[in-house]
Amino acid sequence: MALQAALFVAGIVGTELHIVLWVVALHEPSDYHKT
């Protein structure tokens, strides 16, 4: 149970980080297209 809960929380955090990075990429496209 504890392991499943930890994996569930980690998945939520990972998804939130992905959304944040995606929003930042939309707001600052120039920095991401330079590479």
How is this structure best described in words?
The protein has helices at 2-27, 29-33. The chain is mainly alpha-helical and 35 residues long. The longest helix has 26 residues, at 2-27. Keywords: Membrane, Transmembrane, Transmembrane helix. The chain crosses the membrane at residues 6-26.
The biggest beta sheet is recorded as: none
Element-by-element helix/strand order: HH
Number of strand segments: 0
Q: What is the gyration radius calculated from CA atoms? A: 14 Å
Spans with pLDDT under 50 lasting ≥5 residues?
A: none
Query: How far is the first residue's CA from the last residue's CA?
Result: 43 Å
Residues in β-strands, percent: under 5%
Oligomer: single chain
How many alpha or pi helices? Answer: 2
Provide mean pLDDT, rounded.
85
Note the overall shape. Answer: rod-shaped
Keywords: Membrane, Transmembrane, Transmembrane helix
Task: Please describe the structure with a list of short key phrases separated by commas or semicolons.
mainly alpha, 35 residues, membrane, single chain, transmembrane helix, transmembrane
Question: What's the gist of this structure?
Answer:
The chain is mostly helical.
Question: Secondary-structure blueprint of this entry?
Answer:
Layout: H1 2-27, H2 29-33
